[in-house]
Fold each of these.
Amino acid sequence: MLAGGSGTRLGAERNKVYLPLRGRPVLAWSLATFAGMPEVGAVVLVVREPDRPLAEQVLAEHTAGGVEVVVGGRTRQESELAGLRRLAARIDAGAVDAVLVHDAARPLATRELASSVLAAARAEGGAVPGLWRDDLAAAAPDGAGLVGPSPDRLVAVQTPQAFRAAPLLAAYEEAAACGFVGTDTASCMERFAPDVPIRWVPGDERNIKITYAHDLLVAEHAAPIGTV
Ligand SMILES: C[C@](O)(CO)[C@H](O)COP(=O)(O)O
């Protein structure tokens, strides 16, 4: 789980994932989704070094433990690699077969969505949730490489995204060697593991990313968080 953002766009004095949402930090909601899933073993939380005390506090107050904290890098790409390297020995040993990558700033993701993404990735290699958006029709075709229904519309991609673990780790190591910086996990896999199919899974309108201040207001009043 990626919690390495700075909160700049939201205008808060701290990373948005530590701001309160319905009485607990955004991060606590995001972690709760995955902590309770029987299909999920290890949970690795990637944070900025200065945020480590805040992250440890959230874990102590809002989880039953077992979350592994790793310090990320300057970019999303580096932070994902840091998280994957934490799992590398377990991936190499075959103890971790697939990895879900999630933005901690998406606290309304449901277990149902995560389960369907994970199942699709295990079956096919990779999976990404997305919403077809008519209003993005003039934008760059980011969703063009996804396998699935292909109406003449583009996809607004969400997380969690999931991939089989070994090709994912290999792709991120190769990307690091090339200095590649992607916008999400799928963009790295499309570039460095083009043979891995990426299955489109229907996303969830409620699964918003907290980016701007008004997103927190929307999340406060969204449908009930379905995980706890
Ligand atoms: C991956 C993502 O959630 C897809 O919508 C989004 O691109 C993440 O953006 P961030 O700026 O890295 O938080």
Amino acid sequence: MNSMLRSARTLATTASRSSVLRRGYSSESVPDRKVAILGAAGGIGQPLSLLMKLNPLVSNLALYDIANTPGVAADVSHINTRSEVTGYFGDDQLGKALEGADVVIIPAGVPRKPGMTRDDLFNINAGIVKGLCLAIAKYCPHALVNMISNPVNSTVPIAAEVFKKAGTYDEKRLFGVTTLDVVRAKTFYAGKAKVPVAGVNVPVVGGHAGVTILPLFSQATPNANVSEEEIVALTKRTQDGGTEVVEAKAGKGSATLSMAYAGALFADACLKGLNGVPDVVECTFVQSNVTDLPFFASKVRLGKNGVDEVLGLGPLSDFEKEGLEKLKPELLSSIEKGVNFANK
Ligand SMILES: NC(=O)c1ccc[n+]([C@@H]2O[C@H](COP(=O)([O-])OP(=O)(O)OC[C@H]3O[C@@H](n4cnc5c(N)ncnc54)[C@H](O)[C@@H]3O)[C@@H](O)[C@H]2O)c1
Ligand SMILES: O=C(O)C[C@H](O)C(=O)O
């Protein structure tokens, strides 16, 4: 979070560094990086496109959607920051959008309405994600893929199976974006603990739906005097954060602005890792040996090839241990649903 603010503050510096690059000098500290956003004209896609345009680590921003990308791209492209912006529209242009991408962010797909679970989106979004991943395997098989489309607990396994079939799967390069759960846990904890939110850290592990979202408030820093009862309430609020927004939007979609922020944070971390910045650690849903489940969200160190190291869970409270056992059957069944879909 702080690094994003720092990034924004360094825009001016970077703009002048970019003009140095344009004049033909090289700069090892800011390599060229292409980021493609698939679903760029949507509720998440538009603010995410804006935030990625503000990121000085991006040199080429490709905005792809099946509708409305020319307008979004024209609009964003007028912002005087480093990256060149290109809009791509429809199936025919997907390959061009993806070619040469270092990071592909996928917020394409339908959002929830009140009364729906994320799994209710499976029937539509599974097909969308499968199609986009086939194209990624063909046009940018080495890109880091940041999966936002729900249900993340199933769309990430779908992507993995598509890449396996195409012979391009690299478990170090596929990520389910669970950053919004961390963003929420930090905000809610800071409010309850009455500490400045900027300094708060809370790991969130498991998956990205209901009880599969497991915030580890026992590891929250700074350590504050928060009662057991409050921890239970904070856990529930974090697990239900998405539903809180869906209900408040009353049929007009789910979290878009906070998700764009979280997606931009995670993509920024991926870019920093690719660029060799040390000790970049984020929670994310990846192929994992941390539990007996094949995919699991935990802290991950990001590096030049994507995942550098999947970090363990650390010590859990009894309440968290119980939560971990409770989430496993649901998470496993969502993972299997994705695998089965991709292989049918
Ligand atoms: N991981 C998370 O924490 C998180 C948070 C919020 C939302 N989401 C999910 O993100 C997804 C998008 O949400 P939204 O609010 O932006 O929805 P939205 O309907 O506003 O936007 C989705 C966009 O995807 C586009 N799209 C559809 N099919 C496509 C395809 N084949 N290729 C490219 N683009 C395509 C649509 O044209 C639209 O512009 C939903 O599945 C939602 O549940 C995930
Ligand atoms: O809740 C949703 O459907 C969207 C997203 O997964 C969220 O956590 O906000």
Amino acid sequence: MNYNCRPSVNIKNQITAYINYTAIVQQLKQEITHKRINVITIENYPIVDEQEIKNSLINKLQPDLIIHTDEILIEQMQIDEMIAHNLTDDRIFGVMSHHALSDFINQDKHQAVQEKINAVIASNGLVVVYGVGASLVTISDLLVYADLSRWEIQQRYRSGAFSNWRANNAGEDPNRMLKRGYFFEWRVADKQKKYVLPKSAYVLDTHHKGVPVMIRTDDYLAGLKEVSKQPFSLVPFFDSGVWGGHWMQDTFNLERDKVNLAWSFNGVPEENSLLLNFNGIEFESPGSNLLFFYGEDILGSRVFGKFGEEFPIRFNFLDTVGGQNLSLQVHPKLSYLQDTFGSHYTQDESYYILHADRDDAHVYLGFNKGVEKQELMSALRRAESGDEVFDDKKYIYQHKIKKHDHYLIPAGTIHSSGADCVVLEISSTPNRFTFKLWDWGRVDLDGKPRTVHLYHGEPNLDMRRDEDWVKKELVNQFIVVDEGEGWIEEKTGLHEMEFIETRRHTFNSPVIHDNHNSVNVFNLVEGEEVTVESLDQSFETFVVHYAQTVIIPESVKKYKISPSGRAKGKKCITMKAYIR
Ligand SMILES: O=P(O)(O)OC[C@H]1O[C@](O)(CO)[C@@H](O)[C@@H]1O
């Protein structure tokens, strides 16, 4: 199976890149000499390895003064007090922060630091300022921005070697570190990055220990602009989980050393990296930067007007082949999410079945007829306290699945994917808001039970969603909407309560796609290979393999998808999503 785990986008622009610290130091020293620089600022995203940057870069510049941003900030304890409401005591859920980094500056400390800097400048010395929010410290002559993607950040949280920003909590429960990241750290850091990165002279890819890559910011932004005009794939990542399976390991031939693979995130710019290939030199960037700097080109003005710089569609896989059921869960209704967590839109979902490993594989979707909330909640509470095993057969409707089924899961619907299947999850993006109701009495891979949130789940369970309603509204809602020579297009969802529209194309000859004035995301759910071609030669032909997720920016109005390679003339199927 030809599955590319490191897809990159070829950028036409010829650029100079500085690879490793020796080359970077040399370039910055040249800048210092030629431009008579007194203050260099190296600002970074949280969890970039600041110690490495200090030892291998800053010290090598032999500055007269080094300042870390923390020197102008209020104490950690004061920050904790200010964000206590955002962090909450819960292990998983917080409340979205609307803070800015500048809220945490201590004016007296700031003034004292500025005086120290002024003294060095007066004697024509060199000052290097670094850290998160470093550009807030003083005006600089040269600004470098060091960046990092979310997946690498999560790995670093888990490693025990890194603390959250201003937290001193290395080794803490990674769930709590992730919560601080999601609800606070990334919010303030993104706000700051949107403002600072475009003002910088250079950007630094710090994903690989000891081997950073530095390029000019103009080249980087021009590269992102190029990406915003063509189909592209993000770098997928794979993660193990208590219910994880082995289909991805076997089918894609990857990460076989892991106990299992539960998730593959492959169409989530907030989480995935984007790999820019400048004539053989790879530069890894957070996918979200595309939205921050070219959001309107990527989403289209209609969708950009609704969602701003957030990517509203998420594609990921859930693999339970040889694994177990997901937790029995529900996602919050929109008003609950807005009131309780301060998020804009909720996690509406759908399951497209990529593979069912046995005839009686099933999903849990809605209730059996006549189930009362009070009785259900009592049973769930008894199960949570360990008094008894939850009788899922009594309460929850189970529906047998087969390959290429599509199940719609508007927020408020109780659901779970059963064991022995592979789901392509097509959902709206916020990915933290799963309220587990029952986790089958098991413990997680770390030996601890996963947190169940009955008090959040209860108000969100829509008891009207029983077997009859589910069959009528959520199961295989296929309607043929168009067809031509060798192709057919079906509308498959999502439910009218959800803002994503999904279309399935089955074809053995070329199909012209219209983008519906929205970003499009698709996955090749059947067939070995297809190509995506431009109708006006504005981008190079893009080759897509089985199970690959592709993002088509809205700037590409129409495009052609054709079976290619060994799939030429054979049946292929794509599942595409866009915003209604
Ligand atoms: O709670 P569980 O069992 O890990 O469930 C998996 C969940 O993971 C996600 O894919 C991402 O959070 C959810 O959408 C899904 O419902």
